Automatic annotation (TrEMBL):
Lineage: Bacteria, Bacillati, Actinomycetota, Actinomycetes, Streptosporangiales
Domain Response regulatory: residue ranges: 7-123
Cross-referenced InterPro entries: CheY-like_superfamily, NreC/VraR/RcsB-like_REC, Sig_transdc_resp-reg_C-effctor, Sig_transdc_resp-reg_receiver, Tscrpt_reg_LuxR_C, WalR-like
Gene3D superfamilies: 3.40.50.2300
Organism field: Streptosporangium brasiliense
Annotated protein name in UniProt: DNA-binding NarL/FixJ family response regulator
Chain positions with 4-aspartylphosphate modification: 58
Statement: the UniProt record of this protein carries the keyword ATP-binding: no
Length: 216
């Protein structure tokens, strides 16, 4: 049984990158690419149909983003491991992927050995992150006292998430990109946050948030 190849589904909306990666993975001993998907929705459907050991998933895809697709795959088939392969180094994207159930997270600059190691590890039930991402995770948890979960109870979970990114110095455009929201939605949430915290501007909101441990 252990001699059987690891069956991989590859989900990425860029055909050149997807086909190149499929050929690369297919050339590696012990790995078999059993299918590809061009959208998040297709990834969910193909995962349910093919039941691969591992899904290699891009974050940004049409119809359904990779985070939500990962959440659905993990809910429908918990035994399938998901490795996120993405250009995004945003902390919010990384931790959203982890919360969704991803067991691996690599940047698209990862080399063949790193990708192969991640797929093999995740197929065996382990969690793995590329060196740069692992460093970010370590820095996040070593970054001082955690945010007080009781702070700002008047805010919704989404507003707290956005406030944390504001406190980390992210612009509205960067927050929108990281959370897959429109800039208008982010602006509306930021306005609500200012009103609820009774602050006049972004600088004052940042001070309040950092005092509570957000944005580390």
């Amino acid at each position: 049984m252990s001699d059987e190849p690891i069956r991989v589904l590859l989900a990425d909306d860029h055909p050149v990158y997807r086909d190149g990666l499929a050929a690369l993975l297919g050339s590696m001993p012990g790995i078999e690419v059993v299918g590809t998907a061009a959208t998040g929705l297709e990834a969910v459907e193909r995962a349910a149909e093919l039941q691969p050991d591992v899904v290699v998933m891009d974050v940004r895809m049409p119809e359904l983003d990779g985070i939500e697709a990962t959440r659905r795959v993990a809910a429908d088939s918990p035994h399938i491991g998901v490795v996120m392969l993405t250009m995004s180094e945003e902390d919010a994207t990384l931790f959203a992927a982890m919360r969704a159930g991803a067991r691996g997270y690599l940047l698209k600059g990862a080399n063949q050995a790193e990708i192969g190691r991640a797929i093999t590890s995740v197929a065996h039930g382990e969690a793995i992150f590329g060196p740069a991402i692992a460093r970010r995770v370590a820095e996040f948890f070593a970054g001082g006292p955690p945010a007080d979960d009781g702070a700002f109870p008047q805010l919704t979970p989404r507003e707290r998430e956005i406030l944390s990114l504001v406190a980390a110095g992210r612009s509205n455009a960067q927050i929108a990109s990281a959370l897959f929201l429109s800039q208008k939605t982010v602006r509306n949430n930021v306005s609500n946050i200012f009103a609820k915290l009774h602050v006049a501007d972004r600088a004052e909101a940042i001070v309040r948030a950092r005092d509570a441990g957000l944005g580390r």
